Amino acid sequence: MMRSLTLKSLMILSLLSSSIVANTIDDEVLKYEKQRIKRAVSKANGKINEINIVLKKDLKKDGWYGYVFNLDITVNGKSIQQKDTLFAKDGLISPELINTKTKRSFKDMMYPTLDKKYFSKEHLIAGNPDAKHTLVLFSDPLCPICTDEVPFIIENIMKNPKNIALYYYHMPLDMHPTAKTLSIASMIAKEQGVKDIDYKVYTKDFSNFYDAYKETDNNKALKYFNKTYNTNITMKQINSNKWTKKIKKDLQMAEDAFVNGTPTLFFDGEIDKSRMKYEAFLKQNNGEIK
Prior knowledge:
The protein is 40% helix and 23% strand. By secondary structure, the chain is of the alpha+beta class.
């Protein structure tokens, strides 16, 4: 009995020691980041409002860890919120870490692993919700790369519905002034029963109707949407509290996943910068690729 208690005590002490060491390392990295950013913003007559660690990730590479920080700073009277990354190991801290084999930065890995909240039925647009593998897509209907790649992605999942579940999140970018209207119109059309609207909106290039980067007339965008998909959605619906809340929720989900561009894919919960891992999986499992 005494031996068991002693071993248990030792195990608890070991866990506590590991936690203390980890916290000490985290504190040192955070302290360094604050000092580094303070030097940078002071040169621009700025100040730090808040800096905190939002992600710590084991890189599985010789003891290195990556850290992502939320920065809230003021520069020349302007409030700025952005993320920053550092890497740390055994008292070493670096702003960059390169994989010499792939020639890619480990910053490409510094995204959170998506949890189950991203795999909701509401966002499933293709595939089997019980599939072993998942694909999460963040996209903007006016992004030129999206209009080129997203139909291909959706079609491949439609042709291989048992293998992968595809979840879609609207991420209209500010650089496309009417993208939010098109995204919300898609949500409304889906509720009204327009089949595969999340796919169809990418097969019709709205840039053929107007300049996606310059056009600010949302009425014009909605007019083309209604004409194209035979809907009768109004701007009153677009601006309603119900739909503005839904689009804000999608945008918040993107922010929580550190997504800042489109299209962005996560395969099995992990960021896929290549946007091809799901395709490689399908090929390995005799899936049909268009």
